[in-house]
User: Fold DUF1772 domain-containing protein from OCS116 cluster bacterium.
Amino acid sequence: MQVAAAIIACLSGLGLALVVGVRLLPEAGWQLPFDLRFFGYSFETAEGYLTAITPLGRDWYGGPFRVLDTLFPLSVGLWLSLLALRRGRGLAASAAAGAATLFAAADLSENYTLMQLMAGPLPPDAALVVQANFLTMAKYGLILLAFVLLAKSWVVKPQAKRGSETNGK
Assistant:
């Protein structure tokens, strides 16, 4: 299952890159989609994107892009969780699996919020922009945390169990 999740993550990631490069960027005046703005965005930036994206771009955003952007976080979250729990050690491995799961949940929540923004009127609802922006930054923070904890779980040295010390005897 770990290999299957990794393959799905890679294929959906490649599909996302293709859809963004071929359709979403040209259909939005070469502005990055909300999902790819690592440091978030302001109300003005969100309004600018929603004004710039064409009806065809909106169709692609809500269609192929959304399908791939559902598969991607689910498969990445599953893959990292399995990798951490099967190959990691200690509390860091469990925390990495938890962060990976929270990443998937944050990304899916972001997707739902962004679809509300895309379907809504202009100007967009300020509360939705704040919520989507928070979820965008949270998902990137959580995936970074998952990778850091996963790396830590690989370098953790096993500790001796209590009572197993012989004190030289």
